[in-house]
C-alpha cells in the first residue's frame, strides 16, 4: 500500500510539473500580426506599414497641390503711365497670354519690350517664359489732328484752312495767319487760351483753333 501511494504521489507531482511548465496566455495582451505578402521580410505589423504608406501618399499629393498652386513664374506688365494690365503667373516654357493693349492719352501703343536701351519686342506666339520678368510698354507720341475756324477770315484767299497734325508733347510749330477786312488778327485760341507756335500740345485728341479778331 505504501508503495502504491508513493508511486501515485510521484505521478501526481509529474503531472503538476508538466502543467506548470506550459505558460498561460494573458488575455490582456493582443496578438501582433507581422508582415505577410509584400511585407513578408519585414518584422513589423501590417497595420503600421499600411499607415506609413498612407501618410507618404498624403504628403506627396499635398506637395503636388502646393507646388501647382504656388509654383511658377510671374510676368509683370509695366505700362509707363498707361492703363493697368494684370500680372500673369506661368510655368517654365509656357507662352505668355497677350493682354489687351493699354491706353495712354496722347500716345500710341507700340508693343511690349523686355527692356534695355533698344526695345526688344516680345513675340507672344514664339517667346516662352524662362523666369520672373517684366514686359514694358513701348509708347510713341500721338499725332493730333488740328482744324481751324477763321471766323470769316481768309488764308490765301480761302476761308477754309487745311487740317494739320501736331505731335503730342511738342510745340504746335508754325500756324497759318488769316486776314479779314476791317479787322486785325489777334491770334488762335482754344478754350480761352491763346495758342502760339511755341505752345506745347497738351490736347490728346482732335481739336479746333478759332481765330480771334480785334
From TrEMBL:
Keywords: Membrane, Transmembrane, Transmembrane helix
Presence of the UniProt keyword Membrane in the record: yes
Region of interest: Disordered: 1-21
Major subcellular location class: other
Tree of life domain: Bacteria
Entry GO CC: cell envelope
Gene3D superfamilies: Listeria-Bacteroides repeat domain
Signal peptide residues on this chain, from the entry's feature table: none
Bias kind Basic and acidic residues: ranges: 1-11
Protein's cellular compartments: Cell envelope
Transmembrane domains' residue ranges: 52-75
Protein name (Swiss-Prot/TrEMBL): InlB B-repeat-containing protein
Taxonomic placement: Bacteria, Bacillati, Bacillota, Clostridia, Lachnospirales
